């Protein structure tokens, strides 16, 4: 097998709890934990809440209550997890200073336009927007690499964009045995039998144990993404996020597997 280093991405998401200093601390801890890069989320809460209120995967979780309908509930969530645009220049500089790569998830063409002013090196699209042709088109027009998450229950279609990394996105806070990881074996088979293809694959891991990352590394993933959190900072992502100590242990497992497989 060809030797390669798997990218380990620390998902910052909303684990900063709405505090810039926490976001910077997460970047420091990502570096300490052995991550190769960090990923931010760029969205406007109001716009994203309206867009996602009717999404099929969210309808069951956000039924109307006395407090309001899905849009109101999602807006409350996204205000909690929002990373303000004015933070980005400082966070980008902080990541670069620590020798980490950076990129961001985008949810609307307007997010892409904003990040282009900061020369974002590549873009991530979440599994909720995996079939949003306008958003994907906006990223493709930049000529930058695209990272696309595909939900574990959705069809994983062959990408048409050559600069693409496709991530198997597991359900949130489930054990690895419930994460449909057989897809990784199928992608590994495609790697072996169709070596000329120009896309890469990896794992967006929200499972509650350590097996998924190990399996992805063994099969030949090029990227693994985990959420990073700060102890004592409560956020909506806690159930599928890791402290730097656990993140570090998970990263070491991946590096050990690489060493064993490649020598």
- CATH superfamily membership: Aldolase class I
Helix-strand string: EHEHHHHEHEHEEHEHEEH
Proportion of beta-strand residues: 15-25%
Question: How many distinct helices?
Answer: 10
Distance between the termini: 10 Å
What's the architecture in CATH terms? Alpha-Beta Barrel
Query: Helicity range of the residues?
Result: 25-40%
Total strand count, please? 9
Q: Numbering strands along the chain, what is their spatial order in the largest sheet? A: 1-2-3-4-5-6-7-8
What form results from the Cα inertia axes? globular
Work out the radius of gyration.
18 Å
What top-tier CATH class fits best? Alpha Beta
Instruction: Characterize the main sheet.
Output: 8 strands, parallel, barrel
Give the low-pLDDT segments.
Answer: none
- CATH topology name, in short, is TIM Barrel
Instruction: Give the number of domains.
Output: 1
Structural class: alpha/beta
Explain what this protein looks like in three dimensions.
The protein has 263 residues and is an alpha/beta fold. It has one domain (7-43, 82-245): Alpha-Beta Barrel (TIM Barrel), CATH 3.20.20. 40% of the residues lie in helices and 17% in strands. It has an 8-stranded parallel barrel, surrounded by 7 helices. Helix 8 (182-193) links the parallel strand 6 (164-169) and strand 7. Helix 2 (45-52) runs antiparallel to helix 4 (70-81), helix 6 (109-116) packs parallel to helix 7 (133-142) and helix 9 (211-219) runs parallel beside helix 10. The protein is globular and about 50 Å long. The N and C termini lie close together (10 Å). The relative contact order is 0.17.
């Amino acid at each position: 097998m060809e030797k390669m280093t798997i990218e380990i991405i620390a998902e910052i998401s909303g684990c900063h709890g709405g505090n810039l200093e926490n976001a910077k601390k997460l970047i420091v801890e990502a570096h300490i934990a052995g991550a190769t890069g960090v990923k931010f989320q760029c969205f406007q809460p109001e716009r994203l809440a309206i867009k996602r209120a009717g999404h099929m995967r969210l309808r069951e979780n956000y039924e109307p209550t006395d407090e309001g309908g899905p849009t109101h509930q999602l807006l409350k969530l996204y205000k909690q997890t929002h990373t303000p645009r004015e933070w980005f220049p400082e966070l980008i500089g902080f990541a670069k200073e620590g020798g980490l790569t950076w990129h961001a998830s985008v949810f609307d063409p307007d997010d892409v336009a904003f990040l282009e002013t900061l020369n974002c090196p590549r873009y991530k699209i979440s599994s909720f927007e995996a079939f949003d042709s306008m958003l994907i088109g906006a990223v493709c027009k930049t000529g930058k690499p695209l990272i696309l998450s595909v939900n574990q229950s959705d069809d994983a279609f062959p990408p048409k964009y050559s600069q693409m990394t496709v991530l198997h996105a597991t359900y949130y806070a489930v054990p690895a045995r419930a994460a449909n990881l057989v897809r990784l074996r199928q992608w590994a088979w495609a790697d072996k039998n169709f070596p000329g293809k120009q896309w890469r694959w990896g794992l967006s891991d929200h499972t509650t144990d350590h097996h998924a990352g190990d399996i992805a590394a063994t099969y030949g993933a090029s990227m693994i993404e985990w959420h990073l959190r700060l102890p004592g900072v409560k956020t909506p992502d806690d159930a599928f996020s890791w402290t730097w100590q656990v993140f570090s242990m998970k990263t070491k497992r991946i590096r050990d597997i690489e060493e064993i497989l490649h020598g």
